[in-house]
Every structure is written in structure tokens, then in C-alpha cells.
Amino acid sequence: MAAIETYGARYEGDALFIEGVSLHSVAAQFGTPTYVYSKAALTAAYGRLDAAVSQARAGRSYTLCYAVKANSNLAILNLLTKLGAGFDIVSGGELQRVLRAGGQANKVVFSGLGKTRDEIAMALQAGIKCFNVESEPELERLSEVASALKVKAPVSLRVNPDVDAKTHPYISTGLKNNKFGIAFDRARSVYQRAATLPGISIAGVDCHIGSQLTDASPLVEAMQKIVSLADDLANDGIQLHHICPGGGVGITYTSEPQIDLVRYANALQQALGNRAVELLLEPGRAIVGNAGVLLTKVEYVKLGANKNFLIVDAAMNDLIRPALYQAHHEIVEVQRTQTQQRKEFDVVGPVCESSDVLGYSRQLGATEGELLAVLSAGAYGFVMSSNYNTRPRAAEVMIDGVKATIVRDRETVQGLVSGEYLLD
Ligand code: LLP
Predict the structure, then answer these.
(1) Which end of the chain is less enclosed by CB atoms within 10 A, N or C?
(2) Residue 417, number of CB atoms within 10 A of its CB
(3) Residues with Cβ within 6 A of ligand 1?
């Protein structure tokens, strides 16, 4: 694994801390399993990307539209609002979260391929910056709903640049045969159609080729393709206001190389040259991924002939990435032990599924009642959690210096069943 600081944590003596707060004290105060976020790590991650893009743009306009789906806790959205972020949403629910967190509608772009009429109307009424349109029927629907409301819907077409992101197939989205976006070679004619629709005003072009990229070249290649499309459109008399190559910048889970953000931003800028357009990005994981851990307690140590298990109180319902994508998250002891005290364990949850494994073959020295931290859990962690096995979802806590604040209460079983009814 990379240095513990990469994950927004550090050891003080042998005790694991996030900023000035020990994870022992977080567990004592809030229980487990709990997602624990670092305000400083999140702020630093945003700052690194913002600085790289700002420097590359050298005074030209840009907006970082944080992909809300990565982690939509209101405290996180509020923090990002204060840092100047815009937002990339994929549902009416995410729009409501952004507005509740103080985000500005005019910095919101709305992605996603199944926008309902209600969601479209809500976003139009809120006055969002742009709809990223994923199909021709969606374009027609947008025009209808906007016309009925006597407004125009600002749109980008999300085009599919057919670039291989070379990432896990479940999170690769830019190839021809997947459900996202409008085929690149159809895009020009769909823009022509958009230009004729009464409820549409053309604002930009968008793409997103996949997530957890560790090499920037596919991102840059996609950018070059959409910039050349923008040039073709300009020849057709269609001027774009912004260009967006999506999100996708990966993080270090184990020892993956990090995309050099300065080079990435410079390469995007080079593709844009002097074109008078705003640059938008839709980063999610790169902002929050390594600003959060999942804190969990060992319930049982089960030693076997062939395998040893640490059965912990977090499970696939809390963090589904290992089960769903075979994703590797580092798991560390909150009270560090000596190497010779460690054994090889599979770290598993209590859910009745063989796939409920948070980590295979880990060297750990934890005993019953001790705490572990599952690292790199800030993105696509809590947001993908479920109540499978009637497990209330975890609490979320944000650390700021020496202060730990609950930013989402642990669910209760009472709360889970409160909307369920018996037959007469
Ligand atoms: N923009 C669009 C249109 C997207 O679909 C996504 C992510 C993003 C931006 C943000 O991508 P990021 O910068 O986070 O890579 N649950 C999966 C990841 C799914 C990503 C879906 N789209 C995981 O846990 O790895």
C-alpha cells in the first residue's frame, strides 16, 4: 500500500488518527460501522485539481462540477460549495441535495440517461446551467417540457467518443456498445436537430469515458475528439459556450500511479487552445475518494484449517465496491501491531452472501473488539450502501482539526420499517 498519509490518515504512536482525532475516540463516541471523512484531505484534493486547472487556464473560465454521486452527504456538498465548486447531478434528488447544501443552481449540470419529465421541470425551474443530453428522445422531451414552461433548456450533448478508458468494464462508459451518450458520428446531425427545437438552447458538448483512470491519455484523447467536434459545429454555425471531458481521474487504492494533475490540466488546455469556451470538469472520486475511511470493529476472530477470518461489523451493504467490482481497499489496524503478531485473514462482513468480503488475504493482528479502518472509502462508499439484511446504514462523521462532527445519524431499525404496513 501507499504511505498512510495518502489515505488522509496518519499514525500517532501506534494509534490511527484522522487530522487531530483518533479513530478510537470516533468509535467510542459514534459507534461502528462509521464513515469518517477528513475536511482537510477533501479540501486539499479539491485544491490540487483546482490549482492545476486554474494555472493551465491562466485566467480563462472553468468550473469544477463535482460529481455528486460519489458522495452526496450535505456537509460535503456544503464544503465544496464554499470551495467554489459547481455540481454534476444525475437525479432530481441530487439537485435537491445541492440546493439544500447551499449550492448554486447556475453551476449545476444534469447528467444521466433517464431524466423524467418531473426532474427536467424541477431543474428548469431551479435554473441549472446545463442538461447533458444522452439521447435524441431526451432532447425532444427536454424541448417539450421547456416550451411548456416557456423557457429554453440549455443543453450539451453527451457524445460517446469511442475511446477505451481501460478501466473496469462496469465503470467504463465511453465505448460504442454501452448505454451512455450519443454516438460520435451522429452527434453533428443531432446538434442540427437541437438547433431547430423551440425549447432548446445549445450550450456545450460533454463526454465521460469512465472512472478510476490511472493514465490521462484516454481522457486527453476524448477531449481532442470533442474539441474537433466543437470546431465542426462552429463551421455549421453552432457556437458552444463550454466543453466538458467529464470526470474519471483515479485515486490510489493500493499502489496505482496517480495522474499528474498539472500535466492533465495542461493537456486539456492544449487541446482547447485559444477557443473562447469555458472548460468544465466532472470529478468525483478524485475529490473525495481518499478523504474517507470506513471504521469497523472486529466481532469475531474465526481461525480455520485453511483460512482465517476476521468477521467485522461492516459489510457489503456498507461498502459494496469489493463485492461488485472486485475492488481492493486497503484495511489497516486502528491500533497498530507488530508484524510478527499478524496473521493472514479474509476480512468479512456478517451478511449472508459469500461475496460479502471487504478484503482477501490481509496481514492483520486485530483481535475481537479491536478496530479496523477500510481506506479509500470516501467515494462510492456510503452512497452505494443499502439496508440488505435489515442493516441500518452507517453513521457519517466529518473531522475538522480536533473536532469530530456527526454529519449523518446512524439509521435505526425503527426508521427502516417506518414506511412499511401490514395488510388489514
Ligand atoms: N460524470 C459522469 C457523467 C459520470 O457518470 C461519472 C461517474 C462522473 C462524472 C464521475 O466520475 P469520477 O470522477 O468519480 O470517476 N461506483 C463506481 C464508479 C461509478 C462512476 C459512475 N460515473 C465505483 O465505485 O468505482
Answers:
(1) C
(2) 10
(3) 67, 70, 88, 111, 171, 208, 211-212, 246-249, 282-286, 321, 325, 380
Rounded to the nearest angstrom, the distance between the alpha carbon of 314 and the centre of ligand 1 is 23
Compute the distance from residue 16 Cα to the ligand 1 centre, in Å: 29
Residue 257, preceding bond cis, omega within 30 degrees? Answer: no
The closest residue, in CA terms, to atom 8 on ligand 1 is 247
Pick the catalytic residue: 65, 130, 207, 352? 352
Encode pLDDT of 335-367 as tens digits: 999 999 999 999 999 999 999 999 999 999 989
Give dist(CA 180, CA 252) in Å, integer: 26
> What is the pLDDT, as a whole number, of residue 172?
61
For the whole model, what pTM was predicted? Answer: 0.97
Q: How far apart are the first and last CA of the chain?
A: 56
> What's the rounded Cα separation, in Å, for the pair 176 and 12?
50
Residue 352 designated active-site = yes
Going edge to edge, which strands form the sheet with 21-22?
A: 10-12, 15-18, 21-22
Alpha-carbon distance 239 to 346, whole Å?
Answer: 56
Element (H, E) at 422: none
State the distance from the centre of ligand 1 to the C-alpha of 285, rounded, in angstroms: 7
Report the distance separating Cα 261 and Cα 52, nearest Å: 6
Helix (H), strand (E), coil (C) string for 240-284: CCEEECCCCECCCCCCCCCCCHHHHHHHHHHHHCCCCCEEEECCC
Closest CA to 343 of 366, 321, 323: 366
Span 23-60, pLDDT tens digits: 999 999 999 999 999 999 999 999 999 999 999 999 99
Per the structure block, which three cell numbers stand in for 41?
A: 484531505
Closest CA to 267 of 213, 306, 312, 314: 213
Cell output for 269: 488546455
Q: How confident is residue 170, by pLDDT bands cut at 50, 70 and 90?
A: low
Q: Please count the other Cβ atoms lying within 10 Å of the Cβ belonging to residue 169.
A: 10
* Ligand 1 pocket, mutate which of 159, 282, 376 (most atoms under 8 A from CB): 282
What does the buried/exposed string (b/e) look like for 185-221 if buried means 16 or more CB atoms within 10 Å of the residue's CB?
Answer: eebbebbeebeebebbebbbbbbbbbbbbeebebbbb
